[in-house]
Amino acid sequence: MSQVVYITPIKESEPTRVDGIPQTQPYWIHPHLIQSTDPLKGRQFRASNLIPKGACLLVDRPYAIIPVVDDPETNENLVCSNPACNRRAPHHKGRYPCPNACIPDVVWCSDTCRHADQTRHGFECTWLKKYSEPIRAKWSEYDFGMLWIIVRLLATRHTTEMSDQSAFDSITESSPKQLKHSWEGIESLCGSHDTWSHEQVRQWTTFVKKYLQDSPVLPHGLGTDRVLHLICQEEANSFGLYPRETGIFSLLNPPVDRGKQFAAAVYPTAAIANHSCIPNIIHKPDDQGGMVFTASRDIQPGEECCIAYFDLTQYPDITSRREHLRKSFRFVCQCERCTSEEPQEEIIEWTAMPLVDI
Ligand SMILES: [Zn+2]
Ligand SMILES: [Zn+2]
Ligand SMILES: [Zn+2]
Description:
By secondary structure, the protein is an alpha+beta fold. 31% of the residues lie in helices and 15% in strands.
């Protein structure tokens, strides 16, 4: 029996306006989209009633977001660091860099945003200045991005949970507590040591000891194990942000891909969605770093609502999809499409493998 948890639907409401900062689109969840728990898959979204094609199912705001670009000095897709804004900060419109010149990836779209984000950025600034270069030189850009998003998760926790003085409060106040946008939402994300290989967990343990210990540079007050657990959760739940939709099961030839990644983020509610290679939800970021779910077809009452965790146009056959999901997401896909495309001799082999929910 699966347990059903009803999430109170919210109506679009006017969020508190912070002077000079553009109004942020509020959180939204469709009244027919409910969270439930499946004995095998864990948390999931289901339709409690018919959801018509094209309906907006969810708008979730990031708990932490980082830009992912090749050349921050010239790239037009850097996002404003202020969590109450997170709009793109194009080069030609004039950008506001960090007064301490920590890293060029940190910019704001206006002086007002820079000022409003002082406390939160203050938490990460010294860390960025000290560790960004050594991490990028010794490890990789991916590892740096992962560690930075962990630091930003801790920074949001620090400024919103530990203090009342943050522009971020204006967003969290406008959303109902049932949706768990707070640190509680991050704590309930799936993913643990057991999700990942021993080798991977060993490398992350080294990272935590070297770069993420509770210290004057990063005063988060959490133990090594908790931070390691946070990495295991983040890696299982973070989203890449791309300019075009993810999840279109297109028959166009050549298919249209989702474009080049410009950011990565953690969304406490959007992370509940499981994967399907023939999803009934497409997802795409809005212009403020929010994640928007839209029904790509009519969804029947009781049906699970799924997204695609990767660009379906890049992995057209079952072998490449399963290999990608196994490597990057640590589970074997048993969706309708994979099951129907499965060669008979593979069935025994795949079902013998443990199914890990992400
Ligand atoms: Zn801004
Ligand atoms: Zn800085
Ligand atoms: Zn599949």
